[in-house]
Amino acid sequence: MRMIDIHTHFLPRTWPDLAARFGTPDWPWLKHSGSGRAMLMVGDEEFRPVTSACWDAAVRLEAMDRDGVDVQIMCATPLLFFYHRPAAQALECARLFNDAGREICERAPRRLKSLCQVPLQDTDLACRELTRAMADGHVGVHIGNHVGTRDLNDEGLITFLEHCAGEGAAVFVHPWDMMAPERMSRYQLPWLVAMPAETQLSILWLILSGALERLPRSLKLCFAHGGGSFPYLLGRVDNAWRNRDIVREDCPRLPSSYVDRFYVDAAVFSGDALELLVKTMGEDRVMLGSDYPFPLGEQQVGSLIRSQATLPAAAREKLLHQNAADFFGVDAPRAAMRTAALLSA
Ligand code: CO
After folding, report:
1. How far is the CA of 26 from the centre of ligand 1 (A)?
2. Any idea what DSSP says for residue 250?
3. Which of 43, 44, 69, 101 is the most exposed place for a label (fewest CB within 10 A)?
């Protein structure tokens, strides 16, 4: 079976000293320790250990060949969005990381595709960078699920999403800047609890505010991590919509009737969860996404979907590559095209 992995992350091997460039503290940088290992730092704090899989196309292709992944859709990481910084600085960083993403993809252009990032705190700058980046070869955009207190139903963000629809840019929404950090100080609780809640919150803002009534149906929207808590709790939302007028005041139709307006990835790490996800979203709206190469990702990419006995083979093919091929407008060349040949191409 062919595979397109739509949720993978990259980091350039190095980038300019942003603290020196902008004269403010706490910017991310990579502290290399040799043999392809590095610590992603934020100012003086350690954020996450990473490996050369983040920046070295050859390492990525080797892992893809091992797992049978034909194409990776790569995005940078939410840590690099900088929506809370001055917009001009976030724009400069977006260009830097967008260009770096293109450079990695150029090592194997048929197998590595990239999503751009934009300074979403400024709608005009975000739209302009989106247009520039799409012309430069990105297949879509990676955005955070909110900008401070502005969620996806915010006027500026709606304008940006409309612009994406106009440009044919697929939008991948990744949770970030997680809620209630003061109550999640240990055990990676922001990743385990707040991330799924953030994603559910964003989907509900889009549905309950009526934003999906206004946004064009041509908008290609995908949420990470199986839509977070959304699929599991959709029945609770429908029940609330039926029984409380304050829930339905801006939302004319049953919340569950909007599931045909967006996609999700399949990063749920449980066969039972995947079964519910496909039942909720439909087999045309779930796509393989692994979170490669980070530690919370699926370690053998595609294994959950491949071994999902409750799904007929035709549905597994949709999840593994067909839905993603349609969504991102890419095809899945046979992985038989070897890494070495691609790198020398
Ligand atoms: Co991710």
Report:
1. 22
2. T
3. 44
Q: How far is the CA of 238 from the centre of ligand 1 (A)?
A: 28
CA 8 to ligand 1 centroid distance, Å: 7
Q: How far is the CA of 295 from the centre of ligand 1 (A)?
A: 10
Ligand 1 center to 103 CA (angstroms): 20
pLDDT at residue 9, rounded to an integer:
98
Tokens representing 123? 């709608």
Element (H, E) at 263: strand 263-265
Distance, CA 78 to ligand 1 centroid (Å)? 8
Instruction: List the chain residues with pLDDT less than 50.
Output: 336, 340, 344-345
Cα–Cα dist 43/59, whole Å: 28
Closest CA relative to residue 203, chosen from 249, 163, 164, 234: 234
Q: What is the pLDDT of residue 344?
A: 47
Q: Can you list the domains of the chain with their CATH numbers? A: 77-331 (3.20.20.140)
What's the confidence (pLDDT) of residue 42? 98
Determine the Cα–Cα distance for residues 20 and 9; give it in Å rounded to an integer.
Answer: 26
Q: In the numeric block, which tokens belong to residue 334?
A: 């046979």
Residues 6+ apart with CB under 8 A from 121: 83, 84, 87, 90, 147, 148
